[in-house]
Design goal:
The protein has 247 residues and is α/β, with parallel strands linked by helices. It is 43% helix and 17% strand.
């Protein structure tokens, strides 16, 4: 049995980028731990557990994860303006990368992790918190010597999915030109996981993030459509997950 720690920026990223891989690993008997940097909140935390972290626990249970950990940071938001920190914790982008890496490294050591899943240098589609996940993941690997696979997607695949969404008249607020600097070139990818057998589980995990699906975020309309697709169709579209191993 191996121990796999999946490091993500926000609740729901675990389902979108690595859900099939995590479900497959858990089904094969490996221990899966999901760590998120930010809790998905822009303001102060409520006295009870934030809704998005509760939804993350539901998603993690669907995927078969044994543990969920929040590193303690607030969401940095997506856009030109980086808002001031809430009074009770820093935004992930304003955190000291080495301090954040130390927190992640402590979890890796505690779990005796064999593998860390992180993000590519572009942070996938370029969200500032996703780019910081790559940086913090790389630093924690230096501290612990753990093997790292960076979750990504071939740019040509991302472009085809975006084109398909537009043809289906799904409202996607994303500039196709941004794909020139998003995700990764196909030649960089070292691992492709076929997770079609776990597509339904991945889809249900995504559906657990109700606050995102019902929200006004730019990817919310797409996520709503994805959770309503027949499972075989969802599997055809999202039945593969891609990773880069850096040496």
């Amino acid at each position: 049995m191996a121990v796999i720690v999946a490091f993500h920026a926000h609740p729901d990223d675990e389902a979108i980028l690595t859900g099939g891989t995590l479900a497959r690993a858990a089904a094969e008997g490996h221990r899966v731990v999901i760590v998120v940097a930010a809790d998905g909140l822009m303001g102060p935390r409520p006295p009870h557990e934030p809704p998005r972290l509760r939804e993350l626990r539901t998603s993690a249970a669907v995927l078969g994860a044994a543990r969920v950990v929040h590193l303690g940071y607030a969401d940095s938001g997506h856009g030109a303006l980086l808002y001031p920190d809430p009074p009770d914790r820093p935004r992930f982008m304003r955190a000291d990368p080495r301090e954040a890496a130390g927190r992640l490294a402590a979890i890796l050591r505690e779990e005796r992790a064999d593998l860390l899943l992180s993000y590519d240098p572009n942070g996938g589609y370029g969200h500032r918190d996703h780019v910081r996940v790559h940086e913090v993941g790389a630093l924690s690997a230096e501290l612990t010597g753990v093997r790292v696979l960076e979750a990504t997607m071939p740019r040509d695949t991302a472009a085809r999915l975006l084109s398909l969404a537009r043809r289906l008249r799904i409202p996607v607020r994303y500039d196709p030109a941004a794909l020139d600097s998003a995700f990764s070139q196909r030649a960089e990818i070292t691992h492709v996981h076929d997770v079609r057998r776990f597509a339904r589980r991945k889809q249900v995990a995504l559906a657990a993030h109700r606050s995102q699906l019902n929200g006004t975020g730019r990817l919310a309309p797409v996520a709503r459509v994805l959770t309503r697709l027949p499972a075989p169709v969802f599997g055809l579209l999202f039945g593969r997950e891609w990773f880069i191993e850096r040496h």
